Amino acid sequence: MPYNLLKGKRGLIFGALNDKSIAWKVAERAREEGAELVLTNTPVSIRMGNIDELAQRCGAVVIPADATSVEDLENLVTKGMEHLGGKFDFVLHSIGMSPNVRKGRTYDDLDYDYYHKTVDISAISFHKVIQTCRKFDAIEEWGSVVALTYIAAQRTLYGYNDMADAKAMLESIARSFGYIYGREKNIRINTVSQSPTPTTAGSGVMGLENLMDFAERMSPLGNATAAECADYIITLFSDLTRKVTMQNLYHDGGYSSMGMSMQAMHIYNEGLEYRDVKNDKSRRRNK
Length: 287
Ligand SMILES: NC(=O)c1ccc[n+]([C@@H]2O[C@H](COP(=O)([O-])OP(=O)(O)OC[C@H]3O[C@@H](n4cnc5c(N)ncnc54)[C@H](O)[C@@H]3O)[C@@H](O)[C@H]2O)c1
Fold this sequence. Notes:
The chain is an alpha/beta fold and 287 residues long. Helix 4 (70-84) packs parallel to helix 6 and helix 6 runs parallel beside helix 7 (163-185). It contains ten helices and seven strands. Strand 1 (10-14), helix 1 (22-32) and strand 2 (36-40) form a beta-alpha-beta unit. It is an enzyme of class 1 (oxidoreductase). This is Enoyl-[acyl-carrier-protein] reductase [NADH].
C-alpha cells in the first residue's frame, strides 16, 4: 500500500538486472511511493537483463554505467540530474560480483586479479559513487544513500569467499563517508544487511538453497524477501529516518542475533540420528 513517502523525491538506482533483483523491487516501490527515478546498470547487464521493461513501468530513464569507472559515473550523475531536473534525494547501490566465486576459486586459492575485481566492483564502486556525487554536489541536503550487504562481513559463512572481504569494506565506506557527508550536507549513508535471497547474484553463493533453508530455520521471523527488503529501504529513503546514519542495519528476520534455534537444532539432531543409524548398520555388517 503506498503512503506517498517519496513524493517529490528523485532517486538514482544501481543494480536492477531482472525482476528478481533487490534493486528492481526497490525501484517499483520507490515509484509507487511517488519518486522519479534514474536507473543504471552496466551495458552488458542492460543487454542480458530486462531493465528497459522496469524503466517503462516506472517512467524512468536508463543510463548505462560501469560502477567501477569514474568516467561512466560522472556521465551518469550529470545526465541523471539533467534528466530529473535537479539533485538526487536518494541513491541505492545494489551491486555485487566476484569473479573468484564465478570461476570456482576457493578462499585459500584466490586469483588476485579476480580478487581486485571483486573488491572494485562490490566495495570500491560504492566509494566511487559517493565521491562522484559529492564532486558534482549531486545529492540534496538530508538525502539518503543505501548499499546492500550481507552478514558474512561480520561472521564467517562457509562459501561466501572473497565477497565477505568486499562487504566488510563496503560497510566501512558507509561509516567513513557517512561522517563526511553527514557533517557537510546532512546526508546519511547506511548499509542494509539482507537475508539470503534468490536472485542472480544470490545464486552464485555456494549452496544458496540450503543456506536459505538454514537461515529460515534460524530466524524467528523467517528470511526477508526482496520485496520486504524494498519496503525497508523505502523507509530509509523517506524523511522518517533522517537521523539514522553510518549504520549497518540488519534486515534478516532476526538471524543476526541468533546462535541456535529449536528448528535448526531439530534438523541437526535428525542428521546426527541418521548418521548413528548408518554407522550402526555398517558396524553390524562388518561384524
Ligand atoms: N541475493 C542475496 O542473497 C543477497 C543477500 C545480501 C545482500 N545482497 C546484495 O544485494 C545486492 C544486489 O544483489 P541481488 O541479490 O539483487 O542480485 P542481482 O544479480 O540481481 O544484482 C547484482 C547487480 O550488480 C550489477 N553489477 C555487477 N557488476 C557491476 C558493475 N561493474 N557496475 C554496475 N553494476 C554492476 C549487476 O548487473 C546486477 O544488476 C548485492 O550487493 C548483493 O551482494 C544479496
